[in-house]
Amino acid sequence: MAAKSHRRNKVGSRGKKRHPGLPSSKTLSMVDLFLFLLDSRIPETSLQIAEPYLSKTNRVYVLTKPDLADPEVTYAWLKQFREQGAPAFAVECNTGRGVYELMAYLKRQQASTLDKSHPELLSRPLRVMLFGVPNVGKSSLANRLLGTSKAAFGARPGLTRGSHWLRRGQLEILDTPGVIDTSQAKGDVLYKLAATWAVRETQYDEEEVASWLAKEVFGKDDPIAHINEFGRSRGLLGPGGRVDFNQASKAFIQSFREGKFGRISIEAPDTQTPHAESQGLE
Ligand SMILES: Nc1nc2c(ncn2[C@@H]2O[C@H](COP(=O)(O)OP(=O)(O)OP(=O)(O)O)[C@@H](O)[C@H]2O)c(=O)[nH]1
Ligand SMILES: [Mg+2]
User: Fold this and answer.
1) Which of 135, 199, 258, 265 is within CB 3.0–4.6 Å of 70 for a Cys-Cys bond?
2) Which residues lie with the beta carbon below 6 Å from any ligand 1 atom?
């Protein structure tokens, strides 16, 4: 009995961790391909934190929100994944850029579901599961691939509550909630997840995250002074005309999230060094 319930706690292969919000193992056994969504700004962290949940087989990487990341760094990530033998795509769900390439790949995979011994029978739909940290763009990708707006999406993490199958033609998509446990994330991992809004506001301290961004991503020696200057430029003043540091920190993070400082990759493959100055952000 214990062994059986243990088996239910695996995703896609043996020994993987399972969150209670994930689809049942029966549903998972129906999935042909796992689309593993990684935020283009932090692919390494998105991957590391989700890795314990998902099998290495039948995995396709999708770098999301590439419009917010340095295009050269995103290209380098795609190259690295492909050199490691994993199919990888960058898809901008807001505009649909890159969705054609992913769709063409899925169509080729779908064609291979044709039963070779009975070619007179129609091939069955391809079943694809979307998986990734909260707010990475899973529901937006489901909508793009299916040409609908059936999957609810929004700016805050934790919007999708349960797993849902959505279908159009020969494609079935399982949209999942962001079930990866981020509650244990600390230090740089937490700051990166917070900066890209993969965790809720209650999980981090805005002032710490903004200071980390200013220091580690923008290379500022005096991050506090930098955020104060930013706050002053935005008129975020408190009593006595002093900068409201908390409001300034929140606005600084939000500006980063919206790409107002430019297209910034926080993480790059080993061969690349992301640096705000080199991306013309100053
Ligand atoms: N800039 C940018 N924003 C995007 C892109 N794709 C999705 N978003 C935005 O990212 C936010 C999260 O999108 P969702 O599709 O709800 O993300 P999710 O992974 O389903 O989120 P949960 O269900 O909460 O885990 C929304 O505000 C989307 O508009 C993109 O390519 N570029
Ligand atoms: Mg969602």
Assistant:
1) 265
2) 64-65, 67-68, 92-94, 134-140, 153-155, 157-160, 177-178
pLDDT-based confidence at residue 4 (cuts at 50, 70, 90): very low
Query: Each residue of 219-230: pLDDT tens digit?
Result: 999 999 999 999
Dihedrals φ, ψ of 35, to 5°? Answer: -90, 115
Q: Hey, whose CA ends up nearest to atom 14 of ligand 1?
A: 137
DSSP letters for 56-99: STTEEEEEE-GGGS-HHHHHHHHHHHHHTT--EEEEBTTTTBTH
70-118 tens-digit pLDDT: 999 999 999 999 999 999 999 999 999 999 999 999 999 887 766 566 6
Domain assignment present for 198 = no
CB 177 within 8 Å of CB 160: yes
The CA-atom distances, in angstroms, between 28 and each of 49, 129, 149, 226 are 20, 8, 24, 48
Nearest ligand, CA 64: 1
Amino acid type, 215: K
Domain membership of residue 249 as a residue range = 204-276
Overall domain count for the chain = 2
Instruction: For residue 269, give the CATH number of its domain.
Output: 1.10.1580.10
State whether 108 and 57 are in the same domain.
Answer: yes
Cα 14 to chain centroid distance, Å, stands at: 24
Amino acid at the residue 68: L
The residue whose CA is least distant from atom 10 of ligand 1 is 137
Q: Same domain, yes or no, for 61 and 170? A: yes
